[in-house]
Amino acid sequence: MEDITQEQPKIVAEFQKIIQAGMLSHAYLIDDASSQIRNQMAIWLAQSQFCENLQDGIPDQTCQACKTIAMGDNPDVLQVTTDKQSIGVDDIKYFKKEANMTATQGNRRILIINEAEKMTSAASNNLLKTIEEPEGNLMMILLCNSSKQVLPTIQSRVQIFHLSNKSNTDEINDLEAEGYKESFAKTALEISDIKNLLTMPGDNYLSLQTAISTWLRQCNNAQMDSFIDIQTDIMPMIENKNHQQIFFDMMNQIFSDILSIRYQIKDPVLIKEDVLSKKTIPEIVDFSDYLFKAEEMWKSNVSFQSILEDMSLKYVS
């Protein structure tokens, strides 16, 4: 097994500073890299809370407490794993109940949810309540392939750490070769996977972002022209599955940005304007839930254009 401090030095250094300052949050979302590396990162973070020889925010990984966590034998560190296609609300309720029990080997409990993107909408919303109102000294660590596969309402309420797959400089250079400016390449990489971005030229990416923002403004104003915009402005720029995934990534980020703007939680990433300003917070949450379900339908091979047309009717009404 690779040493996570060598595998992910930048993220480890960031967490080290947070741990030393005593500023750990109660909820994190860690994405990118392989599932094995993500889990190692979560285990390292859990070890930092129980290590008997913590030095400068770094667990030694050799003490009995660290070894117990690595072997999965610490009852205060719970892991949600599944071989099923989804993580249901009953699964989340069960582990939440277990996690909220009194700690036995320390003063806190840690809940690690592997493949968090598998959570159903009901499971995600159930977990959201705990993230918003944590009980006791509970830390939650969500692991997933991409944070954009998790409900925007969860994204906006957790601290997100992106692990490194390869040099970020290399990825930026690759995108610059496709016409992305450096600053926008960095933004795009926060939202979508490099393999999808490389299939869409930089100018097209910007045009798609503009088209989506215009479409949402029309939905905001209850204009039925939004239905036509899908056919005339959005669909012509989406040529394949990679582009369709970019669309969902952008939409997820826009909803997250809107909530960030409304709640003033953090700086928005993709948009600076609340393009759904006439919609209430419950409506925004409902829209993001619908987007989550729409992406699930798309993954089940439902027509992408049909999904967008239904989405337009939903957002206008």
UniProtKB/TrEMBL annotation:
It comes from the Bacteria. One of its GO terms (biological process) is DNA-templated DNA replication. Gene3D superfamilies: P-loop containing nucleotide triphosphate hydrolases. Pfam families: DNA_pol3_delta2 (PF13177). Transmembrane segments: none annotated. SUPFAM superfamilies: P-loop containing nucleoside triphosphate hydrolases (SSF52540). PANTHER family: DNA POLYMERASE III SUBUNIT DELTA, REPLICATION FACTOR C / DNA POLYMERASE III GAMMA-TAU SUBUNIT. This is DNA polymerase III subunit delta.
